[in-house]
Backbone:
């Protein structure tokens, strides 16, 4: 988090063998939240003034207090965590009594004394220092995200927020994809194994890794096929990536099965669960190592900002990188690659997302119910040739979806409640021209490249979100030209169905 630390400037990019400074020995939980990032172990021979030593001790006490608060909140239920995060009454009293988390818009932190500054910039005491890397408002959001995504998971979890979902996908994969020393000649290229059924931006990013870094991208065409993952992963696999459910085809996969395959080769599994959100599915408890969220979507459902997050469990496997990458990946990302590459989140955006998160579970429940009603109606309509929605028994991944996607903490009576999210896609009878005509007749459902909103939105992926990957890429990802992606929000489903009915008109 410190801009000009010589020790950190000298770190080469993700060396395979070299040590980099990491979190304080014995640190557990999320070290990146309302308390600033934890510090690396001090150099044993360092000579420090009594003033600096005192600043270090004060910093250690703050870390301990934050760990205690984290443990207190971890015992609470999902909704309570979503509403409060780590923003306690004590924290409020230190912020003029404000019951909402304040927006700290200042890019830089003022230090009381040179001793405080020296301790902070040597990474020996927690500090904010500079907003590109750390900031109190970002910290509140990061603590909440780590607790929500880690809900039900026993071990430590940390989160780092990013400027967008794409920045999060990049930060969750790029650190594993440096070329190993000596690659070339007869040695195989490092590879990334990924489900081809993913967001078009992710498809393009991975294609960029291939073009710019020479990384081999091994696409898994059918993510339900465990044998295909098994065949793709080998000793040169640096990271395994899957989107669940996927945008726009709602592709699903067996997270525990794919995690076992990735771990068998020593690689981490990254899951983009933007469409599910932690209200329906938390991949870390099923064996995933890193979760990516586009907070621009349902988690920030009112649609006021673009944001993303990398949320990782501690002690992940990786063939590559310094020890601190494995010990606490999210913190590693924050202190090194994110610091150097610069895709940090604005505190103002963090505040917008935090406000939406407070109602996440209730919104996801409501939108899932609406989506189920609309999906059933579409499936029964002869003007529609196929509906892809995880909640329909006809959907090929229905059983896997039902296994992984349930409303956290159950329904209002506490019973297990399968819920399948807000997103679906469907094909219109009559082909691409009929599809476009129906799409153009929508009067309530917005035509836009967006999803996860309180307002229902439709798009045709082949001409929008997945246009850039070209016909071959779309064929690989199973995105036909007549596919409409539909994100269902908070309107009454009767009105949405009336709009779809009118739009489909005499189609087919
Ligand atoms: C599943 C998924 N992941 C990542 C992203 C990228 O998120 P952002 O638009 O916040 O960069 C999107 C965007 O639609 C998405 O649908």
Residues:
């Amino acid at each position: 988090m410190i801009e000009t630390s010589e020790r950190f400037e000298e770190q080469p990019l993700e060396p395979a063998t070299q040590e980099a400074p990491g979190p304080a020995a014995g640190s557990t939980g999320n070290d990146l939240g309302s308390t600033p990032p934890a510090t690396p172990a001090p150099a044993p021979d360092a000579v420090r003034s009594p003033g600096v030593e005192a600043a270090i001790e004060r910093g250690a006490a703050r870390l301990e207090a934050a760990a205690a608060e984290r443990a207190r909140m971890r015992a609470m239920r999902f909704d309570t965590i979503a509403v409060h995060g780590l923003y306690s009454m004590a924290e409020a009293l230190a912020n003029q009594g404000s019951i909402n988390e304040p927006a700290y818009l200042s890019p830089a932190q003022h230090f009381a004394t040179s001793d405080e500054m020296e301790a902070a910039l040597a990474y020996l005491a927690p500090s904010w220092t500079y907003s590109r890397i750390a900031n109190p408002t970002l910290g509140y959001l990061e603590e909440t995200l780590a607790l929500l995504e880690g809900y039900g998971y026993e071990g430590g979890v940390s989160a780092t927020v990013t400027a967008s979902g794409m920045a999060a996908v990049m930060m969750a994969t790029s650190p594993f994809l440096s070329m190993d020393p000596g690659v070339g000649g007869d040695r195989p290229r490092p590879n990334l194994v990924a489900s081809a059924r993913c967001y078009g931006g992710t498809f393009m990013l991975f294609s960029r890794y291939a073009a710019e870094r020479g990384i081999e991208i091994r696409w898994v065409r059918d993510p339900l096929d465990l044998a295909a993952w098994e065949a793709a992963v080998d000793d040169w696999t640096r990271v395994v990536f899957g989107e669940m459910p996927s945008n726009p085809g709602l592709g699903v996969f067996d997270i525990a099965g794919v995690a076992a395959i990735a771990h068998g080769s020593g690689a981490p599994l990254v899951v983009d669960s933007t469409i599910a959100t932690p209200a329906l599915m938390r991949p870390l408890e099923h064996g995933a190592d890193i979760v990516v969220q586009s907070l621009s979507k349902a988690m920030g459902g009112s649609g006021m900002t673009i944001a993303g997050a990398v949320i990782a469990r501690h002690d992940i496997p990786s063939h590559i990188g310094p020890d601190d990458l494995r010990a606490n990946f999210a913190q590693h990302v924050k202190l090194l690659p994110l610091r150097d590459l610069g895709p940090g989140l604005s505190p103002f955006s963090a505040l917008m997302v935090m406000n939406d998160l407070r109602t996440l579970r209730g919104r996801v429940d409501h939108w899932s119910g609406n989506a189920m009603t609309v999906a059933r109606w579409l499936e029964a309509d002869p003007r529609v040739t196929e509906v892809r929605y995880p909640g329909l028994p006809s959907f090929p991944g229905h059983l896997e979806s039902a296994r992984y996607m349930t409303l956290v903490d159950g329904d209002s009576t506490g019973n297990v409640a399968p819920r399948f999210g807000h997103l679906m896609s469907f094909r219109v009878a009559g082909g691409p021209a009929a599809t476009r005509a129906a799409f153009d007749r929508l009067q309530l459902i917005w035509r836009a490249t967006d999803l996860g909103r309180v307002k229902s939105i439709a798009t045709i992926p082949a001409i929008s979100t997945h246009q850039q990957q070209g016909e071959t890429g779309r064929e690989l990802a199973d995105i036909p030209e007549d596919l409409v992606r539909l994100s269902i929000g908070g309107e009454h489903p009767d009105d949405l169905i009336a709009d779809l009915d009118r739009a489909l008109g005499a189609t087919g």
